[in-house]
From TrEMBL:
Domain annotation Tryptophan synthase beta chain-like PALP: ranges: 105-419
Entry's Gene Ontology molecular function annotations: L-serine ammonia-lyase activity; pyridoxal phosphate binding; threonine deaminase activity; threonine synthase activity
InterPro entries: Ser/Thr_Dehydratase, Ser/Thr_deHydtase_PyrdxlP-BS, Thr_synthase-like, TrpB-like_PALP, TrpB-like_PALP_sf
Lineage: Bacteria, Pseudomonadati, Thermodesulfobacteriota, Desulfobaccia, Desulfobaccales
Keywords of the record: Amino-acid biosynthesis, Lyase, Pyridoxal phosphate, Threonine biosynthesis
Pathway this chain belongs to: Amino-acid biosynthesis; L-threonine biosynthesis; L-threonine from L-aspartate: step 5/5
Name of the protein in question: Threonine synthase
PROSITE patterns reported for this sequence: DEHYDRATASE_SER_THR
Gene3D superfamilies reported for this sequence: 3.40.50.1100
GO biological process, one term: threonine biosynthetic process
Source organism of this protein record: Desulfobacca acetoxidans (strain ATCC 700848 / DSM 11109 / ASRB2)
Length: 496
């Protein structure tokens, strides 16, 4: 549709103009800082930031119905300035002009309803939201679209040169950061720091292919994160981990899209996400609260976070039922198939604590919870999903296993509708599937493959191998007849 074909009352709003006054607000001391500089932690107290639009109350001049119509009609525009995360421009980054927005096809990922067999197995209605169908094959592209658009805006308005974007990663962040930085060409160079031997080959290949400088160090993600945190404090670099508040803004689009999918009716809905560095669950909580503030949604859904027993600091924190007695304690992680969530010191934990408290206050007890699952349950759930037509990664398996645990413990009811998060594409973690099939998991993973989920190719050997090619017509005919007979026998086919 062309702009002139849209409803007249919406036409002035479809292509947004920059507006608002955004600041970084410290969660600890409340200090505010302008966005004309890159800040990650508060210069006064080292607390973590959330981005705040000081003029956001002005959005309430329009009704929730207006915003619903506007966001839905924007989906029909072909202007990149309102595609992807920036379909929700007023909520993501209203200060950024259209010319600075970076759009690579991210967001609006499929939300696929599970087939009847899988829903019967789980015990309720389930959807997979397949964020592996983003450009770099993970949900991290949502945040990078916002973070790199903001960086692009800073570069243009402040005539910056020689900008280095850097991140620590378990794989997906580095792939997304390198891809979006590469799109900006000579404006930005990128570097990523990875834990040696703890990133899948598929994930490692992505930042290398995008031209990033890849540095591997001994240890786990938490060690890499400490290095980039120190670099951002002492050197001029643009940090692209979820400490970057613009990342959180972009990832809010995940919650907005789920609401849009259900025509903004989130009553009796459940959103299940894995918790790694805690940026994603932060964004989901904040996005839902902001939609609720603007009356775009009338009810808040349940939000369930999931952690593996091998990396469970957030689950452990919420085991204490009395908020006044909770103490956050980082954990030493063990090897996990949910590699992207293998983080013992999530940097966004202060955000989670603040937002989860507000969410529970507004939506009631039980509206937010964290569950724990085993490595065995993660792999079994991933294969269960993919045996039923999905492309779930190990984190997607973690989400499905978490939903099953939440249902088992009564946190979720059978009459509710769940959306589980497959954060990355299945092929990024294909090595773990092969280890399951071959029963080659090291003992520390604590995984014993179920025979019904194992699968292997079967080689068929011709009884009379033909000679060197090119084969004669007779040899080809004999070979084909032999193979047809063997295939029919293996598959139990009946003659016509």
């Amino acid at each position: 549709m062309k702009l002139k074909d849209f409803p007249e009352d919406l036409q002035p709003h479809l292509l947004p103009r920059p507006r608002g006054r955004m600041v970084y607000r410290c969660l600890d001391c409340g200090a505010e800082f302008g966005i004309d500089h890159l800040f990650y932690t508060c210069p006064k107290c080292q607390g973590l930031f959330l981005l705040v639009d000081l003029d956001e109350e002005q959005l309430k001049e329009h009704s929730g119905a207006f915003w619903r119509r506007l966001f839905d009609y924007r989906r029909m525009l072909h202007d990149p300035a309102v595609q992807g995360a920036f379909c929700f421009h007023e909520l993501i980054a209203p200060v950024i002009p259209a010319e600075d927005i970076v759009y690579l096809g991210e967001c609006h990922t499929p939300q696929v309803q599970a087939n009847s067999r899988l829903q019967e197995e789980v015990g309720m209605t389930v959807y997979f939201k397949n964020d592996g169908q983003n450009p770099s094959a993970s949900f991290k592209d949502r945040g990078m679209a916002a973070a790199l658009s903001y960086l692009n805006y800073l570069i243009r308005t402040q005539n910056l040169t020689g900008v280095l974007a850097i991140c620590a990663s378990t794989g997906d962040t580095s792939a997304a950061a390198a891809l979006y930085a590469a799109y900006l060409g000579d404006k930005v160079t990128s570097a990523v720091i990875l834990p040696y031997g703890k990133v899948t080959p598929q994930q490692l290949s992505q930042p290398l292919g995008a031209g990033a400088r890849v540095l591997e160090i001994p240890g786990v993600f938490d060690d890499c994160m400490r290095v980039v945190e120190a670099l951002s404090e002492h050197y001029h670099v643009a940090l692209l981990n979820s400490k970057n508040s613009w990342r959180i803004r972009g990832q809010e689009s995940y919650a907005y899209e789920i609401a849009q999918w259900f025509d903004y009716d989130l009553a009796h809905k459940v959103i299940v996400v894995p918790i790694g560095n805690a940026g994603n669950i932060t964004a989901v909580l904040e996005g839902l609260l902001r939609f609720h503030d603007l009356q775009i949604i009338a009810e808040l859904p349940k939000v369930i976070g999931v952690q593996s027993q091998h990396a469970n600091p957030v689950f452990t924190y919420y085991l204490e039922s009395n908020p006044a007695r909770r103490v956050f304690t980082p954990v030493v992680v063990q090897p996990s198939v949910a590699q992207a969530a293998m983080i013992g010191r999530p940097v966004s934990m202060p955000r989670v604590i603040r937002l989860a408290a507000e969410y529970t206050r507004r939506a009631g007890e039980g509206s937010f919870a964290v569950v724990e699952v085993t490595e065995q349950e993660i792999m079994d759930a991933m294969l269960l999903a993919n045996r039923n037509g999905h492309i779930a990664c190990t984190q997607g398996g973690e989400s499905l296993a978490g939903l099953q645990m939440a249902l088992k413990t009564g946190l979720v009811k059978k009459n509710e509708v769940a959306v589980v998060d497959a954060t990355a594409h299945h092929l990024k973690f294909i090595g773990f599937q092969q280890m399951y099939f071959d029963n080659t998991f090291p003992s520390e993973f604590e995984i014993i493959p179920k025979p019904e989920y194992q699968n292997h190719p079967q080689l068929l050997i011709p009884e009379s191998p033909p000679g060197e090619s090119p084969w004669s017509e007779a040899e080809q005919r004999i070979f084909t007849q032999d193979m047809v007979r063997q295939v029919a026998a293996v598959l139990g086919l009946k003659p016509k």
